[in-house]
Design goal:
About 5% of the residues lie in helices and about 40% in strands. By secondary structure, it is mainly beta. The protein has a single domain (about 5-285), classed as Jelly Rolls (Sandwich), CATH 2.60.120. Strands 1, 13, 14, 15, 16, 19 and 21 form a seven-stranded antiparallel sheet that branches. A hairpin with a 3-residue loop joins strand 3 and strand 4. This is 5-deoxy-glucuronate isomerase.
Amino acid sequence: MYDKSDPRAALASTPADSMIGVTGLVAEEQVATFYDSPPQLDDDTGQTWLHRGHNFLVALSHAVPGASFDRVAQVDEYCVLLPKGGATIEWNGSVTEVPGHSIAFVPAGDSRVTAEGGEIVRLFTTANEDLLALCGNADGYDRPRSHVKPLTAWPAPKGGFKVRHYSLDVAPEPGRFGRIFRCTTLMVNVLEPFEGPRDPSKMSPHHHDDFEQGSLALSGEFTHYLRWSWTSDMADWKDDKVLKMAAPSLLVIPPPVIHTTRATGPGDNLLADIFSPPREDFSLKPGWVLNAEDYPMPEQA
């Protein structure tokens, strides 16, 4: 269902036992419009909004200069996305200076992220119950979603755990999709910015059988299109949805909802997609995961 110019058209085709058409899989999308809702935290660090998916959660902060975000007994590896300003990350007695326009991964345990100021995004798994309880949609998964693949951590990085960071200044390359990075728990694809609206003749409607997609708008405006497939049970049937969202915002798309997104802002439209655990199909494409040499895939993949 991808346009022939879309690199994802070369991904493995959907298996014959696709979840589309299976009854009882209907779930609501999870929507957070950070730009017009009160933050979950408002303190001397700034303002922080938190919103969850099944396996991951997003903490987006408008940080005051010099604000420190501490994690004590952090359960697992997490991600720090720095769209503009940089940060200092302390972990296990080491201090790492991370420039702006970077992505970083921080191991489990005690850590501190001190921001230069401005927007900072931290991504965690839902195994971190203290953060989970703060999410604006903390009860959004009270009804179990058994068709979403549970989180199983991928292998430890080569050379052991440490703070690792990577620049987002990566030139586009024909045949590669976005700017994809992964750790043991998360995969983040910081897409190339759309300058102005996306060509409506080159959309990419598709679905996922057993994992969610978190679409985090960092700048601009986006229109998300969602379609729930009909099954033999009319209780599953839902109307299509068209969600117009500015930045910053987060849409968590449940499987197996058919979806596609169009950048609609007049200027710079920047979107990052979040997956937990990392996607095998993206990881199997040579050259797509930009830090694949640091983070190995599971042997069964």
